[in-house]
Amino acid sequence: MRRIMLTVAYDGTNYHGWQRQPDKNSIEDVLDHCLSDLTKEPVRVIGASRTDAGVHALGNVAVFDTQARMEADKFAYALNQRLPEDIRIRASGEVPPDFHPRKTDSVKTYEYRILNEEFPDPLERLYSYFCYVPLDEHLMQRAADCLVGEHDFQSFCSAGAQVESTVRTLYSCTVHRERTRLTIRIRGNGFLYNMVRIITGTLMEAGRGKYPPEAVREILEAKDRRAAGPTAPARGLTLVSYEFPALEQAGRL
């Protein structure tokens, strides 16, 4: 039995998220069906990130086990002949049989896009959050700087999430403006449920002057979801990439 890793890109608009759900279309369901058809054996993928409905990805990761003899890098080509146009495999390769994408140390990068102008752009509606209120990206960056490092991010986690610890490390959090388009890029070792979307909503509150940027430190210290800003909509969020240092050091990526 071999374990194959897939780098998966998708437009999440028409799916009820990554995870399998009864009577709902999910990314996992589509991958399982196409892989089972390809390998002629029952396949169930294991995903690295269970993105929500409407969230997009350029570099989510999944693994599956197979007895098929196909060369590992050829799975990407074969699957892309079977998948719908809004899901694509960007790379495939063999990994150790015990590799698990959710139980291996990793670095994840997310981007959240905001369209900050007077009127909505219909071509951006599925991939960015429209905000007509002027946002000061410099204030947003000052607020973002307060989040970098190891912190207890309980205030930035949806209430009721079942996790052993709410401590996470952010390696960077940047706010970049290109004319009327803002991109929040966050890189860290792990993210809580809705964490990036809550961070985005909180940075936007700072950007519109609701509170000073340094108030984000108080929000962290509160360890209370009610202290942070609103949860930004899913459509502006994209999972950009996963990095697995152990695999890279072993030359498996």
From TrEMBL:
Substrate binds at Y110. GO terms for molecular function: RNA binding; tRNA pseudouridine(38-40) synthase activity. The keyword Acyltransferase does not apply. It catalyses: uridine(38/39/40) in tRNA = pseudouridine(38/39/40) in tRNA. Residues 8-101, 143-245 form the Pseudouridine synthase I TruA alpha/beta domain. One of its GO terms (biological process) is tRNA pseudouridine synthesis. Keywords: Isomerase, tRNA processing. InterPro entries: PsdUridine_synth_cat_dom_sf, PsdUridine_synth_TruA, PsdUridine_synth_TruA_a/b_dom, PsdUridine_synth_TruA_C, TruA/RsuA/RluB/E/F_N. The active site is at D52 (nucleophile). Its EC number is 5.4.99.12. Belongs to the tRNA pseudouridine synthase TruA family. Formation of pseudouridine at positions 38, 39 and 40 in the anticodon stem and loop of transfer RNAs. Homodimer. This is tRNA pseudouridine synthase A. It comes from Candidatus Eisenbergiella merdipullorum. The lineage of its organism: Bacteria, Bacillati, Bacillota, Clostridia, Lachnospirales.
